[in-house]
Amino acid sequence: MDVRICSKVACGAGASATLTYDYADSMVVVGPLSGRVEPHGYDLCARHAATLRVPQGWRVIRRDPPPRTPERHPS
Fold this sequence. Notes:
The protein is mainly beta. The protein is 7% helix and 27% strand. The termini are far apart.
């Protein structure tokens, strides 16, 4: 599996989130790292995803990863 790197210049940390823009609604969406490289998305490390700043008047939507379900083991 290829490791994806944060899109911020000179960061080099492993990516853990994907950011996308919705210009029409002045909105930024930050969610779990997408399963594939998105042409209009930006991969971010945890630090840059958490400290993201957007233009005044824009809103940020944060999507948490889906909860993990415990594995079932046959009895």
